[in-house]
Design goal:
Length: about 270
Amino acid sequence: MRQKSEGVKGLWIWIIFLFVALILYGLPQNAKNRVASVIRISFFSPFVWVDNQYEIMRDNLTRLIRTERELAQTKLELQNSVEEKLENQRLRQLLDFKSNNKYSLILAEVVGTNGDKFPSGLIINKGSRDSVVNDMPVLTADGIIGKVKSAGITTSIVQILLDPALKISVLDQRSRVVGILISSDARKLLMDQVPTDEDIAVGDKIVTSNYGEIFPKGLLIGYVSSVSKSPSGMFKNVIVQPSASLSRIEEVFIIQNAKSDSIFDVDSK
């Protein structure tokens, strides 16, 4: 019964199709063209719309990619411009510092580190062919950072203040108290061997003394940031904040004629 119903339905479809075909066949040519146009538009318009949307999306994506590239290029140019400006300012400060002191200074650039762990030695791009020798003091415009540990031909290794092996004779500029600058844990600077009855206070300026063989008197080291009694009770615990940043160094000066007057305008009497 169901197959018979489907056969009748198919027959009627064919009858309707033939009826429509006969009507279309009898229409004038202009009417046929209009009907054909309507059928063509009705059938193909969804595909045309999809194709148009695809073209629009592709154009938008192309413009978006181009815009992102242009934005990235603009950001890069801006970053380069800012970096160049900061570098020019830094170099002007370095040149001003070099021209306003009594020492013969060698300007060097930090090109790497000698080791993976902080504080590692700094590698600078000046060596013996530039008149650099071992034990020359090294500083920035802000203060002492260390000394030349090993001078090669074209590069040298700088031993910084936080190296536990480096010890410097220093004094409190205000009270003239003398001590030894050390870093036992490679993280902070201590002014060691300061008796508990000595006058030293937070904020005091710490400079090199004239007792050392390497550093001339009066070079700025840093400022006292903390004073307390040591566990033994015989000495003070004096923590010194270095005036120069030891972790963000890009250029340094090497002092050639170290044993002469100070370049930091501190009282060396």
